[in-house]
Write a structure and sequence with these properties.
alpha/beta; two-stranded antiparallel ribbon; 32% helix
């Protein structure tokens, strides 16, 4: 993949439960592409963004795969243009397209409070959004419309959080080789990344894994969670030339829920930590002041 300096590409998935969510003051669907781009520009990053939409109604399982193809193409296109891809999504299944694009030798850091890691049954079918991690590893099946779906082995997958997961699901994840770090253990992330057999890395952050004080706009905000400052520090240490980070996703939030700026500040801090870990360098202040703002292209 081509190196980048300060250019980022934002790819949105504004759907939830098969429906596009209301924009409010943060289009599309509460994700706040332009809002984030402006905040990142103040810190020296040039963020481009594209809206993705599907006007034709379709079952959610088909929508999952439609977005998988769109996100996968967007990730590869971003790197072709020397831009670091950032997926913003109301759901977790946007990560399927990232894995499809990057291939089976990719490592995955999945930050989530409640990843439903199980095989859906006739009587127990959790929402598709919540089984995304299980679909990534192949424990849960994807729709037959999936085009060249990729799987990651458990040994290449690190779950950070999981504090609200069913113990049976955590055992199933461990049986598949997935290593878990509890919220207070995030400082060990660099060691686990270095030990994995992966050529590149994808970082997926479900905002529900963070404490409500840091991310009040998260879908299922709770008092406990992974400290975002500790996570940002661990990300900066974990990735580099030997273990390159190539994609970031931030999911399951709606900025319209946050009347303040706590969630926005947390998002920008985490994005910047990931981009710096991936090798990015912000523009100097004097260059920043002379340049224009974010653009859609």
């Amino acid at each position: 993949m081509k190196p980048f300096v300060d250019h980022l590409q934002i790819l949105p998935v504004p759907f939830q439960n098969g429906r596009r969510q209301a924009d409010g003051e943060h289009r599309p669907g509460g994700l706040g592409m332009a809002t984030l781009a402006e905040e990142l520009a103040r810190r020296g990053w040039t963020a481009r963004f594209e809206d993705m939409d599907y006007d034709k109604p379709m079952p959610e399982a088909r929508l999952v795969e439609a977005f998988a193809r769109g996100i996968g193409d967007g990730v590869l296109s971003a790197w072709d243009r020397s831009r670091f891809p950032i997926v913003l999504s109301r759901v977790c299944y946007g990560g399927l397209g990232v894995v499809d694009a990057l291939g089976p030798r990719t490592g995955l850091v999945w930050v989530d409070a409640e990843a439903e890691y199980r095989t859906p049954s006739l009587l127990r079918r959790p929402p598709l959004d919540r089984t995304a991690l299980a679909m990534v590893t192949g424990r849960a099946r994807r729709d037959k419309q999936a085009v060249q779906p990729q799987r990651l082995s458990g040994e290449q997958t690190i779950l950070v959080g999981g504090q609200r997961s069913d113990p049976r699901e955590l055992r199933a994840a461990a049986d598949d080789g997935i290593r878990r770090l509890a919220p207070g253990e995030v400082g060990r992330l660099p060691d686990l990344v270095a030990a994995a057999r992966a050529t590149q890395w994808y970082l997926h952050i479900d905002m529900c894994a963070l404490p409500a004080a840091a991310a009040p706009a998260a879908d299922d905000a709770a008092e406990d969670g992974v400290d975002p400052a500790e996570l940002a520090a661990a990300v900066r240490r974990a990735f580099g030339p030997d273990w390159p980070l190539v994609v970031l996703a931030c999911t399951r939030y709606d900025l319209n829920r946050d009347s303040g700026s706590a969630t926005l500040s947390t998002l920008v801090d985490l994005i910047e930590a990931a981009v710096v870990a991936a090798g990015g360098e912000p523009k100097p202040r004097e260059t920043r002041l002379a340049s224009g703002g974010p653009s859609k292209q």
